[in-house]
Amino acid sequence: MDAINDLKKEHEGIRLMLQVLQAVSRKLGRGERINAQHLGGIMEFLSIFVDKCHHGKEEEFLFPALEASGIPREGGPIGAMLAEHDQGRRIVSELRDAVKSYNSGDKSAADSIKEPYRRLCRTADTTYRKGKHRPFCNGGREIGYSQRQ
Ligand SMILES: [Fe+2]
Prior knowledge:
Blueprint: H1 3-29, H2 36-68, H3 77-103, H4 109-129, H5 134-142, H6 145-148
Helix pairs in contact: 1-2, 1-4, 1-5, 2-3, 2-5, 3-4
């Protein structure tokens, strides 16, 4: 099993989801109604796949392996990534409540999902499309992380 390749494939999946998030954000901006099942599916992907599975693996295995190789946790790229994960969690948590209201038919909830959606797009764009996670994968390979899994 190559853990680094798995993480890279997950990044590809997350970049695809970013395109979906951006499309939803544009529709919300135009005042279009979004299908409740689609919004629910997106929330599940963000909570289960992105946060629990992907970020969980990075935080539990990759980051500690990089730290053990001498990269400091604080004041460097690991700390920056952890801060981005936390920022994403806060936005997703905020969005979860707003999506519940929106899906229950509360018309005013459209405004309350628009703004966190925009923020989530910006955060995911910085982290995933602009490739900030790539050096981590490469760093992990350099220290032999994938062989240890
Ligand atoms: Fe990642």
